[in-house]
Amino acid sequence: MKKAMFTASVLAGALFAGSVFAKDVKSIVPEVVQAAANSAVIQAVKAQNAKGVALDKIQELDKEWTAAKEPTAFMKGLTTNAAAKALSGIEKSKPYLVEFIVTDNQGANVALTDMTSDYWQGDEPKFTNAFAGGKGDVYIARPQKDKSTGEVISQVSVPVMSGGKAIGTLTVGVRVDKLQ
């Protein structure tokens, strides 16, 4: 019952009145919620949260991440862990999905299907709106042209839930033109 109520509130939160793109993109919200409920994703987020990493350490890692010229072993580890592998399988099965990003309860990366430009997502709307202070909500970003691929991408972010509370977030890029 709680899951059904959460899914209904997630779908309601995904609607933006008068927004054509949201009507198309919102159709995949249940898929994104299901991906966020994957046991490997939940386990990875719980394990990261249990470490209790201080925000200043996360921000230090963020500086190292953005300064790196090549992916480090730490960065690569986030693209090869069990959660990343599970999400990669989902991404490959859906031509409209690209780049899954899983974060902990502070917005630090936990699992990725593609390398991100920074480590800490905690100061970005995709995290703050989806985490929603631990309550969880859906956030759909306006589509933008991706500079590296030239594709029009919207990001859909949902909370990773456990025990009725948000413990992290999952964000996925959606190729708007591939939705039908």
Outline type: globular
For the record, the CATH architecture stands as: 2-Layer Sandwich
Cα end-to-end separation: 30 Å
Share of helix among residues?
Answer: 40-55%
On the 0 to 100 scale, the average pLDDT is: 88
The number of helical elements comes to 8
Element order, helices and strands?
HHHHHHHEEHEEEE
What is the SS-derived class? Answer: alpha+beta
Here the CATH topology equals Beta-Lactamase
The CATH homologous superfamily is called PAS domain
User: What is the CA-atom radius of gyration, in angstroms?
Assistant: 15 Å
Unreliable residue runs: 1-20
Q: How many structurally independent domains?
A: 1
Largest pleated sheet: 6 strands, antiparallel
Count the strands? 6
Q: How much strand?
A: 15-25%
